[in-house]
TrEMBL record:
Signal peptide, first to last residue: 1-28
Organism from which the protein derives: Brassica napus (Rape)
Official protein name in the record: (rape) hypothetical protein
The family this protein is said to belong to: Belongs to the peptidase C1 family.
GO MF annotations, alphabetized: cysteine-type peptidase activity
Length: 354
């Protein structure tokens, strides 16, 4: 399990000096005229960011000052990036603004997600020439996507991705959107999955299918703690999130992924190990990135904006990242594995309508 960074969250902080209120209420973006900042301005932004993100460093002033230096370096990158005209996306002060790339990688990404054994490639969503697919799909508009959640100091994106897909297919087939237990997967699904050290979405689907469903989040709440004793209820009457099976989308096929997403949200893994990804705040993310799978997400739709095609992906880093926890990821790219490796390992649960 990853070692937590030495700070804690607090629900209440003292108000910072009144000068902070003179800054922009939104720290998410900057303009080309703001690339030169003096230390006083940066410190005021830092104090406001600490309050907005509920951060209080347990090691006192020394740790706070060390984090300020990291914050300043990240802010410099943000300013320089956003000063370049005609970018398709912007970066900003996300909740990770006080972390180095090594800390972020070790705490939130953990081990890379590898290709799973026993994959079952389905043909129900295999794209065929002549298939008529909608130009725009957003499952949030249809009430089939649960709220953005925060995985905390646990590399459990695989579990959030799998649970999100199961929540969605249950809503599509039953009309009821339930909040299901991520923690049950972390505690109990240990055959191929590794709790806070990574896992596989299709193996999570297999666990849910074989157990006859999964508990609700209310009954089995999220703690972000690894290696806890499995507290799953063996009474199937409480295992309300059920599926009938699971399949993989054909690998390296954006059109088949598009077809799949037109029918239901789909779990996928992407390469999220870049500084621009970490600080993403909005727009169509089109940066060159790797294809190693380091974070699992759920693809909840797709669309186009000003001639730029994109996927809508929901992450599990809370609402103070991206567009309220979402990203528009470039679609229709030359790489057959998709932007950031999105088409390397997409999968989805199946369930017959009731």
């Amino acid at each position: 399990m990853s070692t937590p960074i030495t700070f804690t969250f607090t629900t209440t902080l003292s108000l910072v000096i009144i000068s902070v209120s003179l800054l922009s209420s939104s720290l998410g973006s900057v303009t080309a005229t703001e690339t030169q900042r003096n230390e006083t301005e940066v410190r005021l932004m830092y104090e406001q960011w600490l309050v907005e993100n509920g951060k209080n460093y347990i090691n006192g002033l020394g740790e706070k000052e060390r984090r300020f230096k990291i914050f300043s370096d990240n802010l410099k990158f943000i300013d320089e990036h956003n000063s370049v005209p005609n970018r398709s996306y912007e970066v900003g002060l996300t909740r990770f603004a006080d972390l180095t790339k090594e800390e972020f990688r070790g705490t939130y990404l953990g081990s890379k997600i590898e290709m799973t054994r026993g994959s079952v490639v389905g043909e129900r969503y295999l794209y065929k020439e002549g298939d008529d697919l909608p130009d725009h799909v957003d499952w949030r508009e249809k009430g089939a996507v649960g709220p953005v959640k925060n995985q905390g100091y646990c590399s459990s994106g695989w579990a959030f991705s799998a649970i999100g897909a199961v929540e969605s297919i249950n809503q599509i087939t039953t009309g009821e959107l339930l909040s299901l237990s991520v923690q049950e997967l972390i505690d109990c699904d240990r055959y191929f999955n590794y709790g806070c050290n990574g896992g596989f979405m299709n193996m999570a689907f297999k666990y849910i299918m074989e157990k006859g469903g999964i508990e609700t989040d209310k009954y089995y709440p999220y703690t972000a703690i690894d290696r806890s004793r499995c507290k799953s209820n063996k009474n199937k009457n409480t295992r309300v999130g059920t599926i009938d099976g699971y399949e993989d989308v054909p690998r390296g096929d954006e059109m088949s992924l598009k077809k799949a997403v037109s029918h239901q949200p789909v779990s996928a893994a992407i390469y999220a190990d870049g500084v621009a990804f970490r600080h993403y705040k909005g727009g169509v993310f089109n940066v060159t990135c790797g294809i190693g799978m380091t974070q699992a997400v759920i693809v909840v739709g797709y669309g186009s904006s000003q001639g730029k095609d994109y996927w809508i992906i929901r992450n599990s880093w809370g609402i103070n990242w991206g567009e309220g926890g979402y990203m528009k990821l470039q679609r229709n790219v030359k790489d057959p594995l998709g932007k950031c490796g999105l088409t390397m390992m997409p999968s989805y649960p199946t369930k017959l309508a009731v």
